[in-house]
Design a protein that fits this description.
The structure holds 2 protein chains of 2 kinds.
Chain A (H helix, E strand, L loop, with lengths): L16 H24 L5 H9 L14 H14 L1 H19 L3 H4 L1 H7 L5 E3 L2 H7 L8 E5 L2 E11 L7 E9 L5 E10 L5 E4 L12 E11 L3 E3 L3 H32 L1 H8 L6 H18 L8 H29 L1 H4 L4 H14 L4 H12 L6
Parallel strand pairs in A: 1-4, 2-4
Antiparallel strand pairs in A: 2-3, 3-7, 4-5, 5-8, 6-7
Chain B lengths: L12 E4 L5 E3 L34 E3 L22 E4 L3 H13 L5 E4 L22 H4 L4 H8 L2 E3 L4 E5 L4 E4 L2 E4 L2 E4 L4 E2 L10 E2 L4 H11 L5 E5 L3 H12 L3 E5 L12 H13 L3 E3 L2 E8 L5 E7 L4 E6 L1 E4 L3 E2 L3 H5 L8 E2 L12 E3 L4 E3 L2 E2 L4 H15 L13 E3 L6 E5 L6 E7 L4 E7 L2 E7 L1
Helix pairs in contact in B: 1-8
The chains are: A alpha+beta, B alpha/beta.
Chain lengths: 379, 447
């Protein structure tokens, strides 16, 4: 399936899928390509994200723009083909917009969402820990208690991306009653302004331009107008397919970039590269199938059938697995030139490993698929 | 017998066509008074299968050549070729592994199973309590031991998630597995009606589920409500009742096993079950069920005439049939019609490199979820995969057997929905009937 076969966007104000995608591709090939090494070394490319926003690439998936999840996914792919870190920022930005729009909270759905979707303001997502907590992988880190007009939240999150002072992110805390027992979870927009403490993270081996901080909260007040969902579980159940499926955009872009790198050296090195496995034609064929499947799933992002969610998890896992294989093969194809610190193939190896370990990591995806595949029985 | 081999006694094995139980002359059947070393021919004619109660004449020789110098037990290394990957380690999956290993000691075999791979005999589950079978007795062999014995690589606790048929790769929750041939023996799952919540309602379709339920039956007598009076529902009702529990058996039909049996036989079964203390409620549908106090269940029912009754039970069990989940088959584009559609002779699916057998398949659109055909299907698949000559699988309706002591039922043939039943003999204790349709004998019933 190609983008042209997607359902046409609804509403007169909705951006045209082909226009959004061609503009996103141009931004990726122009300013993003020029900045990719700086981003790899820590530059946080808000100026480029603003361009993607102005092109409609950060809001295509929203209902107000026709719920073009396939377009959003493909635009993220176009960016990730050049720079995986920027693709990840787009994903974080996209899902933050999704939280606001799906919240049914007028305070989050008006001007704030408009600015966000257009790339005039920025915010990400702090759902790594809660997603694992809800899948029974690890305990919930943020604790909340009810107070007048909202909740007080305390706790620390180790690393949250696409945040900075003046920005925001979606977050989840477990509410505890006065006697300390947990009652339910709330989801809210966490505003990264004082007194919220953003603590610098240690250096990572990749994705350094994603503005990633540790967050420490001490009785942070969540006003009712910042609540995305209370309780959070039904909300998460509704959006989890879209949340995970959009990440496939990162994978398809990084894989396509790897194939590009393999083809780039084909004229000079093809005579020896034919002895390698995972040749560009093979990877491309697998990628095309994966992309087509992801775009098909993107037509019904809120489908609640259990098999649909398993398909999303499986597709996301395939994307991560293929990204690992494709980027390794690209480095082998390029040899020493791909091993240069300034080269795309070595950077993509690090980006692909990020795709494989970012929540949900390959192991989490398999855990969750196994958990959901088990027959439920009485306790 | 020649003079040279008198020192080595050759024990033969015979397999029950109904349930797959194997009588080994070496072991005998001490529970039924048949001493070890008793030749099958010397067993009294009134001996019955210790599991399902069929007669001696329903056994046939079990021809099963020993593995050809199987690889040494222990660690099975990854091979240079992927070999055969089998999804499922139940009776069907194991039958294929055994059939392959008997023919070829080298072909790499990988078994993928969502459970432990421990060996048990599923037909025993619905008669386990009355036979005093515990979990330890039901579990015949550990998965690891079975894997070592057969020289297979066992991926336990692993779910098959998708098939990339073009590249011959199975995606699993333990990572992708390449294959040369894929055999689907995934079984079928209890088809739970939406009105019965999964966390409130037991289904007895595997050993783990049986163990979970049995743990709740230990100790005091319980009030058990079984929804669905098919073969499994009737067997469980009798088993629970004989173990001292208070059983209510409920079905939308007016009599137990009504879909299978002529009214005369079904009615007799109802009377016999009630004689045992089972309360049978016919013509009733469940509208919803909810949790009561202390884990009990409250079941809201309705008759065909609209009369409502609320039933309470300590334990709720559904025996509402089985269905093959389609997700895996769909991921490979396999033809699917109430089960994975297979060629009736080769058991190949519609996609190259993939075969299927057992509860998960359908032949000409009809599933056939019985034990008897499985070993024959496995033989056909093993020969097909190894390129060895074989006549192929010949599908025939298996003997359908109700494992009951109040009214053992054997049904030969396939009754026609419009066929007419006639009584051949009935002395009150034994009933024999035949069903004829368009001048042909369709089915024969002994109860």
């Amino acid at each position: 399936m190609t983008l042209a076969q997607l359902h046409p966007p609804a509403g007169p104000e909705a951006g045209n899928a082909d226009t959004i995608l061609s503009r996103a591709t141009a931004i990726a090939a122009g300013p993003l390509r020029a900045a990719v090494n700086r981003i790899d070394h820590g530059h946080y490319p808000l100026e480029i994200l603003a361009e993607f926003g102005a092109a409609g690439a950060l809001g295509a998936h929203l209902a107000r723009n026709g719920s073009q999840f396939g377009t959003a996914l493909a635009a993220m792919g176009a960016a990730s083909r050049v720079c995986g870190a920027t693709g990840f920022l787009m994903w974080a930005h996209d899902v933050c917009g999704l939280y606001m729009e799906q919240s049914d909270n007028p305070a989050l759905m008006g001007r704030m969402l408009e600015d966000h979707a257009a790339g005039r303001t920025f915010g990400g997502t702090a759902l790594s820990n809660p997603m694992k907590a809800l899948a029974e992988i690890e305990p919930m880190l943020l604790r909340a208690r009810k107070t007048v007009g909202g909740y007080l939240v305390s706790g620390s999150l180790p690393w949250v991306s696409h945040i900075a002072p003046g920005q925001y992110c979606g977050a989840i805390a477990r509410v505890h009653r006065d006697d300390g027992t947990p009652s339910h979870e709330i989801m809210f927009i966490l505003r990264c302004d004082p007194p919220v403490e953003l603590r610098p993270c240690p250096h990572f081996s990749g994705m350094e331009g994603t503005s990633t901080f540790g967050i420490r909260l001490d009785d942070y007040f969540v006003a009712e107008q910042d609540l995305v969902a209370d309780p959070a579980r039904p909300f998460i159940k509704r959006i989890r397919g879209a949340f995970i499926l959009l990440q496939a955009g990162m994978a398809v872009g990084v894989i396509q970039g790897a194939v590009d790198s393999m083809r780039e050296v084909e004229p000079a090195l093809g005579h020896v590269n034919r002895h390698l496995s995972d040749r560009p034609d093979e990877i491309q064929a697998e990628l095309d199938e994966l992309t087509a499947h992801a775009l098909l799933l993107a037509q019904t992002p809120f489908e609640q059938d259990p098999d649909y969610f398993l398909d999303v998890l499986d597709t996301r896992a395939q994307g991560a697995e293929l990204a690992l294989r494709a980027t390794q093969s690209a480095l082998l194809h390029q040899g020493a030139r791909g091993y240069l610190m300034s080269s795309a193939p070595q950077r993509r190896i690090r980006e692909a490993h990020f795709i494989a370990i970012v929540t949900p990591a390959i192991k989490h995806l398999r855990w969750e698929m196994a958990r959901l595949s088990r027959e439920e029985m009485p306790a | 017998m020649s003079a040279t081999d008198t020192s080595e006694i050759v024990w033969r094995q015979y397999i029950c066509r109904a349930c797959g139980m194997i009588y080994d002359e070496k072991d005998g059947d001490p529970d039924s008074g048949i001493a070890p070393g008793t030749r099958f021919a010397d067993i009294p004619e009134d001996w019955e299968c210790p599991i399902c109660g069929v007669r001696k004449s329903d056994f046939e020789p079990y021809v099963h050549s020993a593995p050809v110098a199987a690889p040494a037990a222990g660690v099975v290394h990854r091979s240079r070729t992927p070999g055969v990957v089998i999804v499922g380690a139940g009776i069907a999956g194991r039958a294929v592994a055994e059939a392959l290993r008997a023919l070829d000691s080298h072909v790499p075999i990988t078994m993928v199973t969502s459970c432990s791979g421990d060996v048990y005999h599923k037909p025993e589950l619905s008669i386990a309590l009355q036979r005093g079978l515990t979990e330890a007795k039901l579990r015949k062999e550990s998965g690891a031991h079975m894997a070592a014995r057969l020289g297979v690589r066992l991926c336990a606790g692993t779910f098959a998630m998708g098939i990339d048929a073009a590249r011959r790769r199975l995606r699993t929750t333990s990572g992708p597995l390449p294959y040369d041939h894929l055999v689907l023996a995934q079984g079928a799952r209890p088809a739970l009606p939406p009105v019965l919540p999964a966390d409130l309602c037991w289904r007895v379709n595997d050993l783990d589920a049986w163990c979970g339920l049995a743990a709740h039956l230990d100790g005091a007598p319980r009030a058990i409500l079984i929804v669905g009076a098919g073969l499994v529902g009737c067997e469980l009702a009798e088993d629970f009742s004989r173990a001292g529990h208070k059983v209510t058996l409920l079905d939308k039909e007016d009599a137990p096993l009504a879909a299978l049996l002529p009214p005369l036989a079904a009615e007799r079964l109802r009377v016999r079950l009630e004689g045992l203390g089972v309360r049978f409620l016919g013509g009733i549908t469940v509208e919803r069920a909810e949790r009561g106090n202390h884990g009990s269940a409250i079941v809201f029912t309705k008759t065909a005439h609209g009369e409502r009754e609320v039933l309470g039970a300590d334990i709720l069990v559904a025996a509402t049939g089985l269905a093959t989940t389609s997700r895996l088959a769909r991921s490979a584009g396999l033809a699917f019609e109430r089960g994975i559609a297979v060629d009736p002779f080769s058991l190949r699916t519609s996609v190259d490199g993939i075969s299927a057998l057992g509860d998960c398949v359908s032949i000409a659109g009809a599933p056939c979820r019985f034990i008897e055909p499985i070993s024959k299907q496995a033989e056909a698949i093993a020969h097909d995969l190894l390129g060895l000559p074989h006549a192929g699988y010949a599908h025939a309706a298996p003997v359908i057997r109700l494992k009951s002591r109040v009214l053992p039922v054997a049904l030969h043939g396939l009754p026609h929905p419009d066929g007419a039943w006639r009584v051949i003999s009935d002395d009150g204790a034994h009933l024999e009937m035949e069903q004829w349709h368009e001048g042909a004998l369709r089915a024969r019933l002994a109860a």
